[in-house]
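seq/struct pair 1
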Amino acid sequence: MNKKIALYGFNNLTKTLSFNIYDICYAKSEREHKDYLTYIDEQYNSARLTKILCDVTEIIGAHVLNIAKQDYDPQGASVTVLISEEPVEEQLKDPSLNMSGEVTPRTILAHLDKSHVTVHTYPEHHPDQNISTFRVDIDVSTCGRISPLKALDYLIGSFDSDIITIDYRVRGFTRNLEGKKFFIDHDITSIQNFIDKKTLKRYDALDVNVYHTNLFHTKMMINHIDLENYMFNTDPDDLRPTQRREIHDALYKEMIEIFSGENIYQEEEVQ
């Protein structure tokens, strides 16, 4: 399918990329928990998220039509952006569109012409554990020639991505000039084909693909834990070797459970 298809009418294939990441941090004291959540709230507020989504829109070759955003109390943010494949003349845009660039809320939604980009954040910690997590969910749904896969490397680099789950699916069909249906308009065997090799080297990756339904799934977990990147307000060099090993193991177990979607080690401890 390398040759460009001559289509009859509009390309109405819907391509959806669901991108989910976890950032993991070791924060032992209640103060460290609060400081970490404050840092996340400032680093990934709706203003920053809006910038990321607008960059994604530009990378995939789309145009922003509308932006909705919200910051939450005590933590979290959401943004939605409506986008279009082709530019829209100013006089045709709805005058109520939120395009001022002013950002106060922490939720952001971008709308496209039959396409959209959304992001939601979920900071989390438990008082009985020393691990804090920050989750980001991003959905990029496009209709037409533009593809959300072009933005993958940018999205991975925009966050501290320790665990990544990516789903890509193509829905609907379009027709060529002779009326033949096409249920996908590009070649793909794995989501990993669209991630830079330098990026992939940093992760262990697993694929689950259902080719006949155009459904592709990739899970990735960072393959090297450098404690300097996971300690909050603490220098690992100030800790004893046994303490560093315990923290490393705690971080690794948390990542494995999130990557696997199971309470592997917690259940072992209960038994």
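seq/struct pair 2
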Amino acid sequence: MSVTLPVFSIERHRLVTDGQGVTTLVGAYGCSLQCKYCLNPHAWQPSTLERCVHLTPEQLYNKVKIDNLYFLATGGGVTFGGGESLLHAPFIAAFRKLCDPGWHLAVETSLHVPLQNLEQVLDAVDEFIVDIKDMDEAVYASYTGQSQAPLMDNLRHLAACVSPERVQIRIPRIPAYNTEEHVRASLYWLKQLGFTRLEVFNYILRK
């Protein structure tokens, strides 16, 4: 039986923010975190799952291949987001086999998944866009409601198995949760692991 992906959105012709070139962002249901300022809380709310369209890898490919020429001309492709994209690692690995080798596949992830999920996509994904929240254990637990352990294990594994240019790590300034000192400490720790593509950004809170 083919795996399926619970999709709540497919956004075409995105630039800059979700990978290189012209990108189609596929939003999938499910997340192991419930961050206080989550930008997509619908990705883990039960009512959203009822409205999701469950697609096989072949069905998703048939929907996104309309932009094949854009992908090949710009070095773009498909980015899996959510929610937590790596909860659907078997689907992503299966989807990769259908794509033109020139498509750039990316995942937006918190890395808060079992290590085996990450291992399943190491050869399938071209770029990992990682939102670490914060490297301080207390800040992380307070903001996400979960242990930091899966993130730490997966970051070490990613550093050991993937070249630095394939990993973009985003470090947010989170109002009322972390400080500039926390951000500097996170940057230092990530550089020590060998990561080089590091971006600090501000969370913009919804009113």
